[in-house]
Amino acid sequence: MKLRLAKNIEIFRKQKGLSQTEIAKLAKVPRTTWTNLESGTANPSLDTLLKVSTALQIGLDELISQPSQGQFHLFKSKDIPKLIKSSGSVEVYKLLPQAISGVSLERFEMQSNSLLKGIPHQKGSTEYLVCIQGSISIYLAGSPFHLDKGDVFVFEGDQAHSYKNNGSIKNSAISVIVLKSV
After folding, report:
1. Pairing relation of β-strands 152-156 and 126-133?
2. Separation in Å, CA 123 to CA 57, 118, 157, 166, 181
3. What are phi and psi of 119, to 5 degrees?
4. CATH fold of the domain at 77-178
5. Residue 144: HSE in the Cβ half-sphere, 13 Å Cα cutoff
6. 15-74 pLDDT, tens per residue?
7. DSSP strand E in 48-134: where?
8. Is pTM, for the whole model, over 0.90?
9. What span, in angstroms and rounded, lies between the C-alpha atoms of 86 and 78?
10. Among 14, 133, 159, 177, which residue carries the largest CB count within 10 Å?
């Protein structure tokens, strides 16, 4: 945590184009304190962290968050939370390691002849179902709609629905739910 804090402080200072002396004056802390903060050897008080975040014009949470790597970030498969729920013949996985505001992304796999009852989402939401492997049927108001690999089905997500694998092989699908803006 100290090293993350140190790296973030240095990155934000450099983004402002300021020297350690200049930013220390703005933060009203001794330059040696700033040097210790950037080296990761400091054990700063909350008051010092507030001075630092004010001088850098960022939120306190940004000081300790994972440092940005520019316009990309690689998440290794082992670091992404996997299973959300499992019923033996159906497994639902989280698709991304970080939440996206107003969007839910899940991947699910279904064994042959398995059924997954969908949960209606908030009123005004839209669900996009993409068949990745095999085939899948979605049932809305008792009517089946059949998707093969690569097909996309779009529907209002606030209605009762269920998914079924009528095929002879395991299927895989991605569900993208876009929630209505409040």
Report:
1. antiparallel
2. 38, 15, 7, 29, 10
3. -105, 125
4. Jelly Rolls (2.60.120)
5. 10
6. 889 999 999 999 999 999 999 999 989 899 888 988 998 888 887 777 877 655 566 667
7. 83-86, 90-94, 103-110, 115-117, 126-133
8. no
9. 19
10. 177
Cβ atoms of 114 and 89 closer than 8 Å: yes
Q: Say how far apart CA 110 and CA 86 lie, in whole Å.
A: 10
Per-domain boundaries in the chain: 2-64, 77-178
Tell which CATH architecture fits domain 2-64. Orthogonal Bundle (1.10)
DSSP-derived letter for residue 100 is: B
* Distance separating alpha carbons of residues 89 and 156, to the nearest angstrom: 26
Q: What is the mean pLDDT of the chain?
A: 87
Backbone angles phi, psi at 110, to 5 degrees: -130, 130
- Between vectors from CA 63 to CA 105 and to CA 23, what angle results, nearest 5°? 145
